[in-house]
Amino acid sequence: MSKKRAVVLLSGGMDSAVAFYLALNRGFNCLCLSFDYGQRHVKETAAAARLAKSAGCRRRTVKLRLSDKGSALMRGNAPLTRGLRKKGGVIPSTYVPARNIVFLSCALSIAEAEGAGDIFIGAHDQDYSGYPDCRPEFFEAFQAAADLGTKAGSEGRPVRLNAPLLGLSKKEIVALGSRLGVPFHLTWSCYKGGDKPCGRCESCLYRAKGFAEAGIEDRALL
Prior knowledge:
It is a single chain. By secondary structure, this protein is an alpha/beta fold. The protein is built from 8 helices and 5 strands, in the order E-H-E-H-E-H-E-H-H-H-E-H-H. It has a 5-stranded parallel sheet, with helices on both faces. The protein is globular.
């Protein structure tokens, strides 16, 4: 009997890696999907390649050309801010306009074509406190659109959208990943593309906070 199939959005960061390993743990045959959309560097996509290879899963890179305006994460754009943002504050400069709408639409198309019944994404509570396309309401709305706008949905076999990390803190994500055996040393979270994580950008600080609170050593820093 063939295994159930899923498309996993695998950026190469720690959250997407945990979502990936959750899908593997649940018995899915995973196709990992990464995006080259004009981001500042390729460190995360290189990490995604390592993660997929380590787990023996197929991986596909989709090349897109999003606008290089509107986000500090795009090449040649605004400087990155330092420090941790306050929950419920303004949308951070690292927001990429409508990114998850674009990514999930690609994942949905590929999942339907491949006969995969599930999509996994590593969005979580900390993200939707600042990014509108990481809110539970957004994923509910996208699921409704997917059910209505696909052949699979109209035939009563909709592609299910899974965001299993929603509601979890970084501490809880690190602890979960540790239990699942996620090779965190293969992941990359830093917004900058240096030889080593900068340790000062928001992503690095949240990652460090999560590992510290979970009482687990971050092997990526060794």
